[in-house]
Amino acid sequence: MASVLPFKISALVFVRNPAGEHLLIERRKAPNLGCWSPIGGKLDMHLGESPYECAKREAMEEIQLTLTDEDLHCFGYISEKSYEGSGHWLMFLFNSLKRVERLPPEIDEGRFCFFSRDTIDALAIPATDRTLLWPYYDRFAAGFVGLRADCDPAGKLSLTEELKLNECR
């Protein structure tokens, strides 16, 4: 009998500065310990929090950025089965239409830095971010994409595009 893994729902928020550089956090906690990632976190499901509410709360908690629903563009979701062999994730992906002027102060979850899109692929980023997150950001940041990823703990990644609208390419 297969073991039952926990299911988590999260929101990631892609925030940029006026020069178009992406704000990333170097994570000090799992998942993605030691890797650079967009800001975000898990939904407070016990409170019935929506993905938009989560994105706004995480932006405020992590970088003191006040966002409204209108400041966010949900450009997709990624459903990851067996991520790092420890759980299943449903991640909602948001573009912040509001820019940040300066680097936020360091928090207990990590430190922040701005990176041009061209330099992100050379950073220590999670393998699935390299394969899924950033390529689909490049293609659908102004549209919408739905992805299903089977993250075999042995390293094999199986990907299904469930929905595509207004691809940027």
Descriptive terms for the model:
alpha+beta; Nucleoside Triphosphate Pyrophosphohydrolase; nine-stranded mixed beta sheet; about 170 residues
Would you mind describing this structure in some detail?
The chain is α+β, with helices and mostly antiparallel strands. It has one domain: Alpha-Beta Complex (Nucleoside Triphosphate Pyrophosphohydrolase), CATH 3.90.79.10. Helix content is 18%, strand content 40%. The chain has 3 helices and 9 strands; from the N terminus they run E-E-E-E-H-E-E-E-H-H-E-E. The chain has helices at 51-63, 117-120, 127-140; strands at 7-16, 22-27, 36-37, 39-42, 72-83, 87-96, 110-115, 144-151, 157-165. Strands 1, 2, 3, 4, 5, 6, 7, 8 and 9 form a 9-stranded mixed β-sheet that branches. A hairpin with an 8-residue loop joins strand 2 and strand 3 (36-37). It is globular, with a radius of gyration of 15 Å.
